[in-house]
TrEMBL record:
Region (Disordered): 238-258
Stored Gene3D superfamilies: Vaccinia Virus protein VP39
Pfam families cross-referenced by the UniProt entry: Methyltransf_19
Keyword Transferase: yes
Name of the protein in its database record: SAM-dependent methyltransferase
Presence of keyword Transferase: yes
Lineage, broadest ranks: Bacteria, Bacillati, Actinomycetota, Actinomycetes, Kitasatosporales
GO biological process, alphabetically ordered: methylation
Length: 258
């Protein structure tokens, strides 16, 4: 059994706390509260990112007919996980989660529920091994059929931008024509208070997360056909009627592999 250190805050558990999840400890709540004291908008960003994920999956199921999902850098289970959204709309959907964080692995059983018609699997592989990810995904997914690659808030943990782009390219190379990339990341240029809070957090010795300019987030979609409205602040991407559309420092989009 993996030993989980509850004496130091953990970014996945802090994010879980901001999303209203239960898989966190007092040390994570304290770190999360300290961050929100500096920048209360982080909860809006966390929940806006999760809401974008749900809307992009619904679009993929309804508009694109996608029934296979490869979610890399899954994070801790919270609400509206990829398989829950996809299988609620198309019970035959098949989902592979990939995350090599021992903490996520300890909670992976919550990600492995599935409809009888579909399937979910969990592969404990590093983002930095894209070919291994594709090979493992092929045990559950039919990689001759369109598959949606989901990268939600994971690439900010890759310090080197060129390496992050290379990882996206290598993952997409293993997927067929008609596949999609759903990606959202923390961004610079929209909310200075967020940028200052995140930069300060990165200097605390915690696992850093790097915000990137919007044009760098757009470049992750190089070679893909962007679904309208392109790469935008996530509340502006196919908003639900009546939902807030105030831009936040989180940009994302959906692109199709030709």
């Amino acid at each position: 059994m993996t030993q989980i250190d509850t004496s130091v805050p953990h970014s996945a558990r802090i994010w879980n706390y901001w999303l209203g999840g239960k898989d966190n400890y007092p040390v994570d709540e304290a770190a999360g509260d300290a961050y929100t004291a500096v920048f209360p908008g982080i909860v809006t960003i966390a929940r806006g990112s999760r809401a974008f994920l749900g809307r992009s999956i619904r679009h993929l199921v309804h508009e694109a007919g996608v029934r296979q999902f490869l979610d890399v850098g899954t994070g801790l289970p919270t609400v509206d996980n990829t398989h829950e959204v996809a299988q609620s709309l198309a019970p035959e959907s098949r989902i592979v989660y990939v995350d090599n964080d021992p903490l996520v692995l300890a909670h992976a059983r919550a990600l492995l529920t599935s409809t009888p018609e579909g399937a979910t699997a969990y592969e404990p592989i590093s983002l930095f091994e894209p070919e291994r990810i594709i090979e493992a995904a092929g045990k559950t997914l039919d990689l001759t059929r369109p598959t949606a690659l989901i990268l939600s808030g994971i690439l900010g943990h890759v310090a080197d931008y060129d390496e992050a782009r290379d990882l996206v390219r290598r993952l997409l190379a293993g997927l067929p024509s008609g596949s999609y990339l759903s990606l959202n990341e923390g961004s610079r240029g929209t909310d200075l208070a967020y940028e200052q809070a995140q930069d300060a957090y990165n200097e605390t010795g915690a696992v850093p997360y790097y915000l990137r300019p919007v044009e760098q987030i757009e470049a992750f979609f190089e070679g893909l056909e962007l679904v309208e409205p392109g790469v935008v602040s996530v509340p502006l991407w196919h908003p639900e009627p009546g939902a807030p559309t105030e831009p936040i420092g989180q940009h994302g989009g959906l692109g199709r592999k030709p």
